[in-house]
Amino acid sequence: MASSEEDGAVEEKENNNKKKTKSALATAWLTFYNIAMTAGWLVLAIAMMRFYVQKGTHKGLYRSIARTLKFFQTFALVEVGHCAIGIVRTSVIVTGVQVCSRIFMVWFITNSIRQIQNEESVILFLVVWTMTEITRYSYYTFKLLHHLPYFIKWARYNLFIIMYPLGVVGELLTIYAALPFVRRSGMYSMRLPNKYNVSFDYYYCLIIVMLSYIPLFPQLYFHMLRQRRKVLHGEVIVEKDD
Amino acid sequence: QERAVVFFEVEILDAKTKDKLCFLDKVEPNATIGEIKSMFHKSHPQWYPARQSIRLDPKGKSLKDEDVLQHLPVGTTATFYFRDLGAQISWVTVFLTEYTGPLVIYLMFYFRVPFIYAPKYDFTTSKHWVVHLACMCHSFHYVKRLLETLFVHRFSHGTMPLRNIFKNCTYYWGFAAWMAYYINHPLYTPPIYGEQQIRLALIIFLFCQIGNFSIHIALRNLRPPGSKTRKIPYPTKNPFTWIFLLVSCPNYTYEVLGSWLGFTVMTQCLPVAFFTLVGFIQMTVWAKGKHRSYLKEFRDYPPLRSPILPFIL
Predict the structure, then answer these.
(1) Into which family does the record put it (chain A) (predicted)?
(2) Inter-chain touch A195–B189, beta carbons under 8 Å
(3) Which of A39, B60, B70, B107 has the smallest number of Cβ neighbours within 10 A?
(4) In terms of residue numbers, what domain contains B102?
(5) Within-domain flag for B197
């Protein structure tokens, strides 16, 4: 019947319009998000440089930028949501692991173990993170605006080659420095006997976390290397089938 | 007058490289995929039939062993694509291994074998009677599972990939050790509400063990020996099966809601609660999948049923 055909066509058009609005909304949100994050990490970078230039030392630097760092790094959790609902085509697990390791460092190491806040290793990973994030978020911003300067693309897919390992070194040294303080204070730990019949030792947990870098870091690093080959050299990667 | 039999020719190509791996001529039209797999195995002895995936399309679904050649959409020269599924291990072997581990491991903690707790506790027993009860329940549960694997279950797949046994055993054995460590610990704290709590937990546990077993028997009776047929399960005379009215996979319902929840309440141990939660998530995923395939396969599937929790999930 003619009228039901029309209805079908109208419905399809409505669905297409819904899809277009959704993707326009997603693009608008992602553009805003990436601009905001680029700005945030730029602010962090500038604050860090100003502190060092003015005070001539890195002692107290972490305290001065702690709030801004916690805000922007924690906000990055929404990126896991982006992958989950599909507006960003990256694996939820890869993003999840990366964001969680950052959250862990910021909230469970540097925020809660004040004695290590002036360690040089903290400055090391802060510098690495800042450089990496500014490059990454500006890359996404320019990509969404369809105006990607080659040097941003170059930076995104080349700087990580030294940044990633340096960041890992900074993080591991920081956790290692924190160990004696954790042991002495017994923080985040629970001993027997208790009514839940469970125990938890944050000290040994941290040791396991440090060991977990061994299998996890190479996987993430090689994932980035594969992305690099695909993007910069247009290589067709044959993925391993399941 | 003799009936002319049209023989088929079968060529098997590698699904990824499209190389010709095998050519079979004079294949009976009523040959099954299973028989073709055996013939392929003869020319490639490293690929036993269980690890062969034969399909019509390189990226398509695997054909079943029971599919008959002449009923497939192929010409008299059939082209199949082969994928190596990797080393396979039988379901029975996997189940027996993954269930024997927890049984033995828990007992090692129960008897306080050396090097687990402080040396002064070696080979001592707990002073709390709930710890003895918990050991009996845990052991009973896994003995039941082992016996069901040997005598009750009828598996639709013969094998699974070899790497699954490592994954599964890590999960079962790891959790068993973690739970057993705390329940049998010298500093274990018995349930707050004492005897009442333990009694209630035991009743729930036993009720659901019987329920779970009843479901396994009902499912077994749906399927004649040696067959892989699938039918809709319905409530039987056994009241424990009446839950089929509301749920597609009541064996999982009984397992989680009853046995493991009961065990958690009985031992009041957070690791047990955690194990129950993880198991619940996994079984919900399985139940949803099973429910979906029931709906796809049977037009007249009862609409009132939920996958695992009545009306909720």
Answers:
(1) Belongs to the very long-chain fatty acids dehydratase HACD family.
(2) yes
(3) B60
(4) 89-297
(5) yes
